[in-house]
Amino acid sequence: MALRSLLTTAERGQVLEIPAGTEELAAHYTLGEADMSLVRQRRADANRLGFAIQLCLLRHPGIALADDTEVPPEMIDWVAARLAITAEAWDEYGTRGETRQEHGREIRAYLGMSAFGIADFRQLVEHMGEVAAQTDKGLVLVEGARDFLRSRKVAAPGVEIIERACAQALTRANRQIYAVLGAQLSLDHRGRLDGLLLRRTDSSLTEIGWLRQAPLRPNARAMNEHIDRLTAWPALCLPWDAGKLVHRNRLLKLAREGASMTAADLAKFEPGRRYATLFAMSVESMATITDEIIDLHDRIIGRIIRTARNKQNQNTLASRATVAAMMRLHSKLGDTLIATKENGEDPFVAIDTAIGWESLAESIAQAKELTRPALEDHLALVSAHFTTLRRYTPSFLAVLDLQAAPAAQDLLAAIKVIRTVNTTGARKIPDDAPTSFIRARWKPLVFTENGTDRGFYEFCALAELKNALRSGDMWVTGSRQFRDFKDYLLAGSDYTAMKDAGELPLVTANGSEEYLQNRLALLSERLQQVNTLAARNELPGVLITKNGVKITPLETIVPQHAQPLIDQASAMFPRIRITDLLMEVDGWTGFTRHFTNLKSGQLSKDKQLLLTAILADGINLGLTKMSESCTGITYAQLDRQQASHIRDETYSAALAELVNTQHAHSFVAHWGDGTTSSSDGQRFRAGSHAESTGHVNPKYGAEPGRMIYTHVSDKYSPFHSKLINVGDRDATYVLDGLLYHEADLAIQEHYTDTAGFTDHLFALMHLLGYRFAPRIRNIDDTRLYTPTNDPELAILAPLIGGTINTKTITAHWDEILRLATSIKTGTVTASLMMRKLGAYPRQNGLATALRELGKLERTLFLLDWLQDPNLRRKVTAGLNKGEARNTLARAVFFNRLGEIRDRSFEQQRYRASGLNLLTAAIVLWNTVYLDRTITTLNQEGNTTDPDLLRFLSPPGWEHINLTGDYTWPRTNQIKPGKYRPLRRSTKP
């Protein structure tokens, strides 16, 4: 048995999985003539079949036949058919253990393989120690061990033995990491690290607790406090470069483990682990604070500009009466002048009589005031906040080590000028200060009759700095989110080696430009095809005219005749408390076993206490209120349970367990085959302590909030969620859910709404092997693009927005592939790259070339959209499943008025993860009982139309009691293999 559990049940099954599909059987188990000759030497049918199956298993997946090996019937049938033997002969094989062992030895000799022994175990541990130094992901380690054994032609033992070897390798790697970091720490360094665990004299916080505190509000005071924290870390004079001696993944994991513990827990660690953990926390905390300072600056600048815009709007509303009076007076003036001209009167006398010169002069002065150039743009009003900026900008610019690409060198020079002015106390910006970074909109404010306005010059530079850091034109030494763009990518030599070997993990494995040319040729062909269909008026439900395109709306997704079955099935669901539901689902799946102790790797000793902490996250009640709602449970107990067992990775593993179980259920086949998914964002208001951390998006009003972006499969299960800022475009996070979920899904096609697509995303989705199908609002405004100007596309001409710059794509083809490969291999997260690419335009060709490639893929998709009503229907149905899940989430996340009120981002993430886990549990429970409901109706003679079953959906909650006291039964009230009785359909 393994020292600690590295794999889930599903993962153990897939490591040495025996193929069962026809194509896989043919690929792995087609016997050659030499194989058949060896098999025919056996005397009886049972021995021939058993020998052949042993031969197949040792060849793939490379395992020896043991007493407990479960050979799929499909494989037995396949091999038996090849040998012209009945499959029943398998039952007679191996009655003598010696026969099976003799066959095994002969086959290993034939294949040049050896049996797994103690020496192989030791070599495996030694080899996997190098892998474990880079990652602690159980599946990666075990699969690496399996591949190592295959490469050495050693018959693999059971998965448990491989897992044990990997666990030992992981333990050794951990000790090695502690030793490597410890060797770089002197006694003075260790003393300073121990000092981080001591309580501050002016606070109840420990030193490390204060240093790791998140900023409270986006204002000058919070910024200066955070700058003090960033300054305090370098003052420790630790050997910061030592962090480069440990793989980035392991250093980050070590830091996260330490961050989830109290200072008292850290102090109890043995010295090697304690100092390594504190050092890792120090390295990561310094990078985190740097990123948080930049984010604070971003939010402060954004808030000042937003306030100025609101102020201008208020001024405009307030001046309506003045403008109206002015217009009436000037209208009267016009009438007077016209009348004097017609009557030949003296106009000056008429003006004096009708209006009065004093009134006219006052009106003209008001008009000049309202039309001052400086007040035509709301940016002029930011001057009211210059004092706020000067409270922190000198130290802000001084503490950051800024670097710039050639395109932003002028801006960097301007920042250096501002630093000098701040240091010397000068009041004016030098005449030779750089100005080319100043946009036309800022120039009337920066350049005045009296010279360069220092306030607007600084504000303009700070605003452009914000944009440049977002795009990557500028970066900060020591930052994690704002590094040099090239530092994020796969090393050039590694990329070249993969390309030359034809092993790029993309749709074009060898990176040949021929692939690009084929896509362009396909685009030309499809444009001609759709143009011809449009000319014949044969595009179903689509009309293209010179004014654009009109698409007939689809009929209702759920037909009226399906509603009685939906109502009847819903009325038969048993009523259940949310606590009982979680206990029942855990009895089916054992998802709580994934919430292992951070330090020991052991399961929680109190499952009910663990479920209570999870429920507190999922329904947004919080630990304090939950302890008050549960008899015999204290806040301290819940807090310890959360600190020890609840983390991002445990939530992810538990979610994958629920999703896999739901996808394996037979009833879900009515909803899809598991290859499509959709994603959408759901906003929750940030209130109380979290209000200062929330972001504002005018789309949702003026209140700050957070967004939970969730991916939902075509079988309704939410397989990935991420807490994001409401100001970020949804498209930034689409790839994250597809690439980084842990469920056993093979998503091939993905749907989003309008906010979920960009041209960059279209390009990357295709290269990474996904069919991308967003539902684009106002499709009439979305243009098609052609490889070349083609006068024959007359019918499509109103929709064509131009040609694709194929030269740019070709020139940067390798850079595009390197970026996509970096994302696919996990060298950099997809959302980080999407945020960089979608930010303020970078002055290099990569973003432009990727956008041009995205135009190509978007045009191919739009042509399909125009031609295929089934595609339009599928996308709508997929997005409706996501909306149904969001409705369920809104109902579940009802406490605290549905607001996220936790200050720390970590706790906010736990809220999002708990909510997604809870909705997945409800979807699974409802799926099981939907199946039982339909089975019962059929048994009672109420035969249901199978075609209507796809309109039933599992995200309902009316039968679930989500409120009240949260009490847990002593044990699961439903015995294994049993279910709750259904309600009668006549008693809803």
UniProtKB/TrEMBL annotation:
Ranges for region Disordered: 678-697
Stored InterPro entries: DUF4158, Tn3-like_transpos, Tn3_Tnp_DDE_dom
DUF4158 domain span: 6-169
Keywords: DNA recombination, DNA-binding, Transposition
Limits of the Tn3 transposase DDE domain: 580-966
Pfam families xref list: DDE_Tnp_Tn3, DUF4158
A molecular function (GO) term: DNA binding
Any GO BP: DNA transposition
Record carries keyword DNA-binding: yes
Family as reported in the entry's similarity comment: Belongs to the transposase 7 family.
Protein name: Transposase
Organism, as annotated: Arthrobacter alpinus
